[in-house]
Structure formats: structure tokens, C-alpha cells
Recover the amino acids of this structure.
């Protein structure tokens, strides 16, 4: 009897180790910028435009929003600036990829270099803090929001605790990101614009024949993509952290591309894959120096590499098959 | 009538014009923070070319960029975008370190060849999986090589910290290599020809000549051998090449292995030539600069050597800036790199299309 109870406790401890509020909250926080960037990538790739410049746009938006929030003392103005900067570079990518039929990968690489250079160069020149922006506080900062009834619902076991300790108490952008998932699914699958978007990523010539402008549709997709990845950057520097630091995007844009493939370019699956990758990162932070039975310490390098290893396995078609939109990466011109 | 512009416009005029635009925009950015772009440019050129030790540093960077540029170019000729030079070179750094740690009590003439072979094998090995997945399963090489870059960074981090680390000194790096892995630097090579007194701390070294030889070898391979012909034919039209009996699997894998090996060679320069030990990041973005170098050099070895020198000047000149212009941080170099890639690569058609029109009209006028 006693032994059985002990066994049950052991089981609960074991589960608690992997699923506890602190770990899940950190998962939610860490996956939010990736989710924004991943949905941004979904819009652009579904329209046939590869964007490896997501990483750079995250960084640029993070810088733009933190710098402007610090300058004006208003977090919302900062947000608009961050998103504006991101849209600007999305349009630059569009000009190269759509209007000039340029190589989309090269344009993405250029944006990533420019992002590191511009944020570092302007940040150091403007704020004289080694590339950091001043710490954001008060009105210039997006603070944590307590969801309604968090305390009373929190008394319900499990679900209540999840509501109070994980879901509640995040910056607004976490909720916006979560809401963007059903919104994206709705736009892509249920609206005329979304269906055209899917078509233009598969068979642009068919869309063209139907009398719909391929460039216009693709620019619209890039506009949405710019807004979404911009919000990811805003959350990075104002929400997740309280200020900009050099290279703070820390490969999250690339991880979003991996998550997009892992999700096979679908909205809900994007949420799950971003959560999974966020969980790996949270796990690495929390248990970096923990000695596990049998295997001992899990090196942080292993957790770092895990999302990319999984993505390669999926890409190779070893679990399911990730098939990209057919026209992705190809410039479209009428004469072909 | 040919609607394409002649080679001299494509290879010389167009990149130079794009470069000018990139420099002009950089100048505006420098101006925006209140610095004088001309004196900044002057300081960069002085620190990167005119001062002898500065030139040594420039040639050190040039060595690296020639190799990563060639790596990108070889893959490009087979119509593949190897964005994984970074990871391939990083893994190759482990190969160099293994050779150096094992043989550094002998002589560099023994250590260097072994390190070069290991670096090429390790670099090629890291390119093999993406190549295989592209050839056999159609997984896009760009995405897989990006993923492999991150995996490389984790793997190399693990190996350095848990396997090769020097536990006496305590930093996350190997021990310093002994005399037998000190490859000749500029100061040594100059003293061979009777010039003494050049700074021993300048990292330019004998692998500069390895890079030049590699450039000649790539030229010979791509334009003078059957394999090179097949690679170029495949790059122009994979279906036509297949029809002519070329195996796409073979071309993809061989081109990527050569590309990975070239990127890998770069590690000799940074690990043995400069740091004389292996740390966590022996590549430091050089793989990505290789993309810019190959673009700028139009995937031709001569162009690549010149473009690599240009980027060497930019990087070394940027490092010099912190002394003379503290307000202008070296981040400006990343801005220039980004702008060069943007104007020379991504926005190439912005100048090319008007130039083609101009050329056609000129031809028409001549005929009339």
C-alpha cells in the first residue's frame, strides 16, 4: 500500500519534472518570438517568397521599437516604429524578389548583415552603451498582464494552476501571438485572399491567367509577414526583455524557418512546433546543470542542436514528408 | 542580335557601379551620425593597405575569404547555394586542431599537410549530408546547410568544451599549439628573403599561398576538366545535362564535397595561422562573407581573389576605425557587407535591365 503510494508520488514527481509551471511559462515566453517569425514566414513562403531575412527583421524591429520607446517614453509608439522598420525591410525584400526577379536568398542574406550592422552602428552612436538601448521602464515598457480571474481560477487544480501560473502574467504580445494562429488559419484557409495566396505559391501562372496580379498578391503577403515578424522583434526587446542588446535575435529567425518546415507550412502545426522548440530552449536553461540518472548531464549543446536535427530528419522525409510550396523561391515573370 | 550585355559590362562595369552605390549609401549612414565619410574612408584605407602591418592583417582576412568565396562559387556553378560554409569550416577547425595537437612536437612541414587534409575531409564530411539529401531526397540545400551550421556550432562547442579543452588554463579552448604547429607567418617568410623586422604578431601566413593555389586549381577544375564541364552544364540546365548522360546525384555530391573541402581549408588560416589554438568560434562569419565574395567576383577565381581582397580591406579597415574614430564603430563593416550583397547581388537587375536596354539601343543605332 505504502509502496504503491510512493510509486504514484514518484510518477507525479517525474511528470512534474517535465511539466511544471515555471518550465511551461518559460516555454511560452521563449516560443513567442519564434511563433511570430514562423507565421511571418508562413505568409511569405505560402506566397512563393523565401525569406531567410526573418532573423534580420526580428533584430531590426527589436532595435527600432526599443530605441523609439526609450526616445519617446511610450511603448506603443516604439511598437509602431519597430513594425514600420520591419515592413520597410520586407518591402525591400519584395522589391528585389518580386519586382526585380532577384535571388531571394541573397536578398535575405543582405538583410541579415544589414540588421547586425545597422543596429550595432546606430545603437552605439545614439546611446553610447555598447550597442544596448537604455533600459525600458514605466510607460516605455510593456508589462505583464494578469488575465481576468487568474487568482480565483488558479484554485482549480492543474487547469487553474496552468491558467494562473503559465498563461496569465505575460506581456500582451504573447497573447497576440497566440491569437495570430487561429487568425492565420482563418485567413489562409477561409478567405478569398488566403486561397489566392496558396495558389500563387503553387501555380502563379494560374493565378495570373485568372486575371489576378501576382506581384500585388505577393507584396500583400510580404506586408503581413513584415508586420508579424516585426511584432516578434517588439516582444523581444520590450516584453520578454526590457531593452535592446546586440544580436539579441540570437538565431530565432532561423529557428522559425526550421519550425515552419517542421510544421509543413501549416498554421496550427506552426504553433506546436514553435512550442516544442521553445520547450527545448526552456529545458536547456532550466536543467543545464542537472545530473540525470543513467545519462548524467544533458549538454546544452545537444538541446541547442535538437530543433535543427529534428528539422533535417523531417526534411529528409524520414518522418512524414515536408513538401514546400511548389513555386517557392522562383521569381515569376509573365513571358515564361 | 544578342540581347545580353557583353562580358566586360557584366563582369567589370556592373559590379563596380553597384559597389559605388553601396559605398555611397554607407557614406550617407556615416554622415547621419555626424562623421565625415571621406576621412573615415581614408582612415580605413590607411589602416588596411598603406600601413605595412595593416596590409598583413588584410591579407590574412583575404586568405580566408578567397577560400570561402571559392567554396560558394564551386557549388554555385552546379546551381546550388551552399550557405553552409560557416559550419563546414567550423567542423574543419576540429580537424586542424586534432592534427596540430597530435603533431605539434614535430615540424610544421609535417603538421600543415596533415592538417590541410584533415580540414578538407572534415569540411567535405559536413557538406555530405546536405548534398545527399539534395541529390536523393530533394531537400533544399539552402535549408539543410543552414540547419547544419547550427548543428556544427553545437557539435564544435561540445567537442571543444568536453573533449579538447585544456583543463589547466580553464578557458573554453584547446591548449596553445607547440612550435611544430606554428606555420610560417609573414614575418618568417620575409626573413627568408632577407627582410627582417616585420611584426611577428601579424597573422598573415603561408596559407595565403594555399588559397591562391586553390584559386588556380578551381579555375582549372571548372574550365579545363571534364568534371568541371559537367558541373557547369548541370548548373545551366540540369535536365539537359541529365539528357546528355550526366548523373545529377554524382554532380551534386561531388560539387558539394569540393565546396565543403574548400571552406574547410580556411580553418588552417584561422586556427593555426592566427589563434594557434582552437576556440569556440574559429570561423566568425567568414562562411557568409564567402557568399558576398563569390557574388562580387562573379564566381570566377580571379574575381574572387580581388573581391576577397576588397572584403579584407573592409574588415581590417573597420577594425582600425575604433582607434581613430571612436564614434564610428566597426559595425559599419557589417553595414557595408550588407549593402554590397544587396546592390551587387539582390538588386543586380536594377542596373542590369537599364544597361541591357541601353546596349540594345546602341547596337541598333550602330546597325542603322
Amino acid at each position: 500500500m505504502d509502496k504503491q503510494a510512493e510509486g504514484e508520488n514518484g510518477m507525479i514527481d517525474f511528470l512534474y519534472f517535465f511539466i511544471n509551471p515555471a518550465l511551461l511559462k518559460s516555454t511560452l515566453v521563449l516560443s513567442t518570438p519564434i511563433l511570430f517569425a514562423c507565421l511571418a514566414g508562413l505568409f511569405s513562403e505560402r506566397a512563393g517568397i523565401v525569406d531567410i531575412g526573418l532573423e534580420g527583421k526580428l533584430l531590426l524591429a527589436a532595435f527600432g521599437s526599443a530605441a523609439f520607446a526609450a526616445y519617446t517614453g511610450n511603448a506603443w509608439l516604439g511598437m509602431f516604429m519597430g513594425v514600420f522598420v520591419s515592413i520597410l525591410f520586407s518591402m525591400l525584400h519584395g522589391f528585389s524578389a518580386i519586382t526585380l526577379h532577384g535571388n531571394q536568398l541573397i536578398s535575405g542574406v543582405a538583410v541579415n548583415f544589414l540588421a547586425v550592422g545597422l543596429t550595432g552602428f546606430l545603437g552605439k552612436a545614439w546611446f553610447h552603451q555598447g550597442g544596448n538601448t537604455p533600459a525600458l521602464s514605466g510607460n516605455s515598457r510593456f508589462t505583464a498582464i494578469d488575465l481576468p480571474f487568474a487568482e480565483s481560477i488558479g484554485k482549480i487544480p492543474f487547469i487553474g494552476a496552468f491558467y494562473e501560473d503559465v498563461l496569465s502574467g505575460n506581456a500582451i504580445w504573447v497573447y497576440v501571438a497566440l491569437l495570430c494562429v487561429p487568425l492565420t488559419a482563418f485567413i489562409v484557409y477561409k478567405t478569398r485572399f488566403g486561397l489566392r495566396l496558396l495558389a500563387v505559391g503553387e501555380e502563379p501562372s494560374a493565378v495570373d491567367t485568372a486575371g489576378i496580379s501576382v506581384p500585388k498578391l505577393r507584396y500583400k503577403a510580404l506586408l503581413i509577414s513584415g508586420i508579424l515578424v516585426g511584432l516578434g522583434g517588439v516582444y523581444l526587446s520590450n516584453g520578454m526583455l526590457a531593452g535592446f542588446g546586440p544580436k539579441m535575435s540570437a538565431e530565432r529567425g532561423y529557428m522559425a524557418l526550421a519550425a515552419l518546415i517542421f510544421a509543413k507550412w501549416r498554421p496550427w502545426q506552426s504553433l506546436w512546433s514553435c512550442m516544442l522548440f521553445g520547450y527545448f530552449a526552456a529545458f536547456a536553461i532550466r536543467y543545464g546543470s542537472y545530473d540525470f540518472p543513467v545519462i548524467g548531464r544533458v549538454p546544452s549543446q545537444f538541446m541547442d542542436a535538437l530543433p535543427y536535427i529534428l528539422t533535417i530528419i523531417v526534411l529528409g522525409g524520414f518522418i512524414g514528408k515536408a513538401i514546400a510550396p511548389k513555386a517557392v523561391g522562383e521569381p515569376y515573370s509573365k513571358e515564361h | 542580335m544578342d540581347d545580353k550585355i557583353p562580358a566586360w559590362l557584366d563582369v567589370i562595369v556592373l559590379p563596380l557601379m553597384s559597389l559605388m552605390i553601396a559605398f555611397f549609401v554607407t557614406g550617407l549612414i556615416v554622415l547621419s551620425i555626424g562623421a565625415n565619410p571621406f576621412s573615415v574612408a581614408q582612415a580605413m584605407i590607411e589602416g588596411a593597405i598603406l600601413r605595412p602591418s595593416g596590409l598583413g592583417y588584410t591579407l590574412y582576412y583575404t586568405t580566408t575569404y578567397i577560400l570561402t568565396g571559392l567554396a560558394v562559387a564551386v557549388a554555385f556553378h552546379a546551381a546550388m547555394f551552399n550557405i553552409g560554409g560557416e559550419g563546414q569550416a567550423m567542423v574543419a577547425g576540429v580537424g586542424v586542431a586534432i592534427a596540430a595537437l597530435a603533431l605539434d612536437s614535430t615540424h610544421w612541414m609535417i603538421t600543415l599537410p596533415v592538417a590541410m587534409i584533415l580540414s578538407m575531409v572534415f569540411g567535405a564530411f559536413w557538406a555530405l549530408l546536405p548534398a545527399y539529401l539534395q541529390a536523393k531526397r530533394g531537400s533544399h540545400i539552402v535549408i539543410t546547410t543552414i540547419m547544419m551550421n547550427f548543428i556544427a556550432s553545437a557539435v564544435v562547442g561540445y567537442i571543444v568544451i568536453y573533449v579538447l579543452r585544456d583543463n589547466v588554463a580553464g578557458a573554453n579552448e584547446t591548449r596553445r599549439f607547440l612550435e611544430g604547429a606554428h606555420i610560417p607567418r609573414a614575418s618568417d617568410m620575409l626573413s627568408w628573403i632577407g627582410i627582417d623586422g616585420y611584426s611577428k604578431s601579424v597573422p598573415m601566413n603561408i596559407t595565403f599561398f594555399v588559397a591562391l593555389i586553390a584559386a588556380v586549381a578551381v579555375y582549372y577544375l571548372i574550365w579545363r576538366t571534364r568534371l568541371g564541364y559537367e558541373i557547369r552544364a548541370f548548373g545551366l540546365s540540369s535536365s539537359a545535362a541529365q539528357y546528355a548522360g550526366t548523373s545529377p546525384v554524382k554532380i551534386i555530391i561531388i560539387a558539394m564535397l569540393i565546396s565543403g573541402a574548400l571552406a574547410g581549408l580556411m580553418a588552417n588560416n584561422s586556427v593555426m595561422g592566427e589563434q594557434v589554438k582552437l576556440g569556440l568560434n574559429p570561423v566568425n562569419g567568414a562562411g557568409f562573407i564567402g557568399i558576398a565574395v563569390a557574388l562580387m567576383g562573379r564566381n570566377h577565381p580571379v574575381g574572387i581573389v580581388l573581391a576577397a581582397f576588397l572584403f579584407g580591406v573592409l574588415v581590417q579597415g573597420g577594425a582600425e576605425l575604433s582607434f581613430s574614430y571612436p564614434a564610428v564603430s566597426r559595425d559599419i563593416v557589417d553595414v557595408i557587407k550588407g549593402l554590397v550583397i544587396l546592390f551587387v547581388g539582390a538588386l543586380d537587375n536594377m542596373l542590369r535591365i537599364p544597361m541591357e536596354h541601353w546596349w540594345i539601343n546602341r547596337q541598333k543605332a550602330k546597325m542603322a
User: Anything to note?
Assistant: The CA atoms of residues 292 and 341 of chain B lie 5 Å apart. Chain B touches chain A through 49 residues (CB under 8 Å).
